[in-house]
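## Example pair
The file below holds two records. Each record gives the amino-acid sequence first, followed by its structure token line.
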Amino acid sequence: MTRRVFYSFHFKPDNWRVSKVRNIGALAGNKPATDNDWHAITKKGAAAIKEWIDDQLHGRGCTIVLIGEATAGRKWIDYEIEKSWNDGKGLLGIHIHNLTNSQGEKSSKGANPFSSFELCEGKKKLSGVVKCYDPPYTNSSNVYNHIADNVEKWIDDAVDARKNFKC
């Protein structure tokens, strides 16, 4: 069964790593913006960016935040997280620092992007509800295989967790 997901990520440093994850066959993701598309969208301002994100999120059951070195705390990633949660979508994070980029380089592990969000009038942190996976390998191929072997279950678990969440 193909799952319809939205990928949230820091475009410039992580696009190559993200493309690897997007190639996993069990997932139908949002159409990626190219460098030129993203530049054109951002030139139109905040309202255009929000509209593009909202259009991309439409019809998706889950948002996967692909966490690179500098993903946490970025304005539009925070918007995607908040909108996804508020719209009742499943939400999960996957650390991608051990996937190699086009030059064969890895990056440093990034912070959990869910830790700055509070739920239930500040009684819970989103990071305590949303799972953030860190594949237990350093070899890029092993990391990819771990994600490919587990991502369908992670998505199903995230959708179930969101449906069953209560303050």
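Second record, same layout:
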Amino acid sequence: MSQNTTVVIVEGGNGVNLLVRVIWFLLVGWWAAGVVSLLGWLLLLPVVTIPLGLAMLNAVPKIATLKEPKTTWQVNRVEGVTVVNRGAVAVAQHPFWMRAAWFVVIGWWLTGLVLAMAYVFAVLPFFWPLACVLYDRVPVLLTLRRT
């Protein structure tokens, strides 16, 4: 009898160290994220430029703090053979119609509000961690994207 085993490993971004990320945020990230947020949000208004606006807003966390996306590794062992795939595990998403309805009814204006709050928090040193959390949540608020 064969035994099938699947192991999924999710690792955080091992990119830029924390000190460089903090310096980046202080010198560039806070204002660059604000500019990209505004441009990306404005690109959501005409239907033709929605894909570009979504791409820009999905990039806001990396622009603000140089945060690398998580890397997923899937390790499968089937009949004595081990197969390792990088990024092969897809997270189940809500149905397209639900994500589109959310975007049209709630996502676009809620994201604009959260981006404005994040920018205000980014200007106030005591609230920097909250600004980073808000920037990180933009893709979820915009289209209910699961990560």
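Notes on the second record: The radius of gyration is 18 Å. The first strand starts at residue 4 and ends at 11.
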